[in-house]
Amino acid sequence: MKFTAFGLFFIPTVVSFSHTALTSRRLPASALSSTLERVAPSAGVVPQWEEQQGLTEEEFMRSDMSKPDLSESLLECPLTLWDAEGIDLDAARESAAKLPAACPLEIRATEEDNKKGEEYFLENKDMIRQKLLEHGSVWLRGFDLPKSVSGHRVMTESLDLLPCLDPLHSSGLRKFSSERDVLYEEVNKPSLRQHYIGLHCESTTKRTAAYASFVCFKKATEGGGRFLIADGAKILGDMEPNLLKKLYDRKVRISVSNLDVPPSTPQFLKEGFKNLVDAAVAPKFDMDLEMIYEADGKPGRLMAIEETESPINRHPVTGQPVWFCNAHNHLRYLRDRRPCGVPEVGMTDVFFGDLGHLSPSECDEIKRVSEKHITAVPMSPGDVLLVDNYRTLHGRDVFNGERYHAVGWFSWDDNEKWRGDELRQREKDGLNQFVNKYMDWLPKDF
């Protein structure tokens, strides 16, 4: 027995292994983890690295103290905009095929652009925002201004991007790099550097950021750490039609955590524990979760599972149907077959809306079509990826050594109704800080 942390409690987690063969119904992941070879996925497009020089950590972490503290009135991440009913899948595939192929669209700085500094982004704001809408992501490459926290803030303010909280701020998955500049540290933790992060939108059934700005301050010192990005419209357009329809018709549910109790525990104690977690812990994650025992077939496993949602959604601005689903990241079948550094309590899975299991061949098809459209971006210091979070999915490859990337999340700047007026950062900070301390405590490559 080992102990893992979930929310405000330490939970005993029983770990066991079995060598039972894989069948069409997926076995509990613990039955597979000791026998499978873990292989890092490939990508459809792999650009070359460039040796752009960065700043020292002291320099790139320095905030401009003459600017106001943005965290004092920081907006909540907006509620997810769902528009998934009545989508014609054949028409959606046809429209996706006509979209621009470049994702991300690369904008490379010239010497003259860098001399302009902030002025370049003020002059080109409308162009950059339009390209972001058309392509789903823009790779700002070779710019000097965003090589630091203060310069990145100048850039995003020049583009009129409106900061907001991470949709999972209270989960502790990220901590602030600079709270006053509303810039989060990306997943750089040494304990997770050998963990492959699959494609996902920064989204839950409840909350979704409108845009993101991913910035590199220091690339991995010993290799790896490419940023992964893929067009959700293109994934939809290339997915096997029968599977796409099946997923759309049955919808999906995503489990976000496992809590293992001894199977011999009396039923009344199991129910009491479930009610305690449901009432005291789950609400602090600001997600609509249902606590369900043994959804994956493992005796004694209590899973925190999101509400039913559509894997396809219309883009709020363009109306384009897109693959709006985090299955490539969260499917346990895929996680068990690639580098994974998450403790059991943090392992995830994806079910059909009725809690039926996806077959291995269905998981493999999601893997195939997702990775076909991945561009594995080699980000150098100062490089920024602007992402339309409703159109484009992102992830991160494994790395070695030390790495420092950061991300800013942004709300709808031109639609007050969509962005809302919630300000709840302070009440969410406690759990964020607790979980981050736990993750920082974990040994490297545990």
TrEMBL record:
Pfam families, per database record: TauD
Top-level taxon of the source organism: Eukaryota
Record GO terms (molecular function): oxidoreductase activity
Record keywords, A-Z: Oxidoreductase, Signal
Residues of the TauD/TfdA-like domain: 123-405
Keyword set includes Transmembrane: no
Signal peptide: 1-16
Gene3D superfamilies recorded: Clavaminate synthase-like
PANTHER family: GAMMA-BUTYROBETAINE HYDROXYLASE-RELATED, TAUD_TFDA-LIKE DOMAIN-CONTAINING PROTEIN
Name this protein carries in UniProt: TauD/TfdA-like domain-containing protein
Taxonomic source organism: Triparma strigata
